């Protein structure tokens, strides 16, 4: 067997190889919606395996795999009935290990969704726990005689659940659940439960996962007099898992799904001893707000409230995911505004958010999609792309709950969008079929053939990003501009010149990657040339400084920008996509004209030499 291209860390002295996640672009995959290899209407592991060529061609570094465990599927698989297996519809553990091995050979990592807070009520642990008050698992869940305990705890699915307590007839007690009433919460006060979860983590690390997305991280513990979120006990438990990973599985990562204010979420980094990554939930709705208000303030305000990440940590930033576009982290007034702008039809609302995909949210405006991606790819944090959004796929708001955004991936204009050869009626969900977003109009095959497609644009941007490691690890410095519609910042810092773990083991090879047939249909994006730029000094051996100026016009009209770039006097901004040198920065405000929703990335080159 050939050696994997992925430098899986072996526990050497250097921390760098373990920091791959700071440079990674993540891609979120709904297994049942991605590709159906055996034509039973349900996407599966072998199907995903067949599409690794595509994902490698696209240039993503890590896949976040949504739950694949056995489940009654009443909450998209987040209602798990066996933590140690793969749902038969998706394949076998063998299929999974083969997928992970092959992915690692290609330099692609895999992060599993880990649901630790609750199980399905069909899980044998719960079946036993509810059967009596004195069985061996009686304390594995959270039981109470009345439903009045912890009144401060909020209800997450407000439109469906009335209480976090549900009565159980057999046991004659209430059980606690933060989500659906068919998802009882595990009792972390019981050390047996905590130990079982650590065993589960080890099991999947042994299988070969490179880390976990920690589902519903804030809710593990409850305590009287609190809202039962972000409790110190919960942080302690996550740190225990981190310790286990650091000691025995270095280089594997934890990504927290903690929906809260920046300061609360930042606690999940601990002192660099808890989660490696946390989703930046409050930033996401403010990106949508900024482009409708045509003002940068929603973004700059939330960034100014965002604490520095500890060394070795990173935000994860995203536009959409498999859930509703949550509006939990905005004020009531802002929520009303976002609903009125983005959910004009009540059927678009889901829980406390909006059940639509990126493209329909933006009224199909490609310029706006490019602008938002330009932000996500250049703001501090690792970008996370939701499957199908690289095509600007549509949604189906007439499907229940969050199925509106979980329809089959659109591969081609063939039957069922090329997702499956099963009969239409057998598909897990109907594909989008409308004239605007249906597979006839939006699919991978067509976009691969069209070099001007959104798919090619995004792929090209990922190539550019990889050539600028400072976008992963650099600091962000706001650039003053009197025009409120313009958001400009410089990402700068020291990056390693030729460290394969920084530019990625794939840096040199990705652009010429064979394999995905679609690649042959369009010209490859411009070669990723890394130019020594910024202040230019190679201060440490193999290290150099890099600085990238990113300018965004959040308005639908053309805008002038006068940027305060005094710190960079004498530098030449070299536009990244075309390598065109712009006028040298002087001590006057730097003037640019920006197209509607325009964005520009410049490397600040001291020499002024275009590559
Ligand atoms: C997370 C998941 C969501 C699920 C919930 C309960 O928020 O993203 O899809 O419904 O947890 O498990
Ligand atoms: Ca299948």
Task: Compose a concise summary of this entry.
With 611 residues, the protein is of the alpha/beta class. The chain has 17 helices and 21 strands. Helix content is 25%, strand content 16%.
Characterize the structure shown:
The structure is a single chain. The protein has 611 residues and is α/β, with parallel strands linked by helices. 25% of the residues lie in helices and 16% in strands. It contains 17 helices and 21 strands. An eight-stranded parallel β-barrel has the order 1-2-3-7-8-9-10-14. Strands 15-16-17-21-19 form a five-stranded antiparallel sheet. 53% of the residues are buried. The model is unreliable at 8-13 and 498-539 (pLDDT under 50). The chain binds alpha-D-glucopyranose and calcium ion (CA). Alpha-D-glucopyranose binds at residues 75-76, 78, 115, 179, 215-216, 257, 322-323.
Itemize the secondary structure elements and their pairings:
Layout (H helix, E strand, L loop, with lengths): L25 E4 L1 H4 L10 H6 L1 H7 L3 E4 L27 H13 L3 E7 L8 H8 L11 E2 L20 E4 L4 E4 L14 H17 L3 E5 L16 H17 L4 E4 L5 H5 L10 E3 L3 H11 L3 H8 L9 E5 L6 E2 L5 H11 L6 E2 L2 E2 L3 H4 L4 H13 L3 E5 L57 H6 L4 H13 L3 H4 L1 E4 L7 E11 L3 H4 L39 E11 L5 E5 L8 E4 L14 E5 L4 E7 L6
Parallel strand pairs: 1-2, 1-14, 2-3, 3-7, 7-8, 8-9, 9-10, 10-14
Antiparallel strand pairs: 4-6, 5-6, 11-13, 12-13, 15-16, 16-17, 17-21, 18-20, 19-21
Helix pairs in contact: 6-7, 9-10, 9-11, 13-15
Bound molecules: alpha-D-glucopyranose and calcium ion.
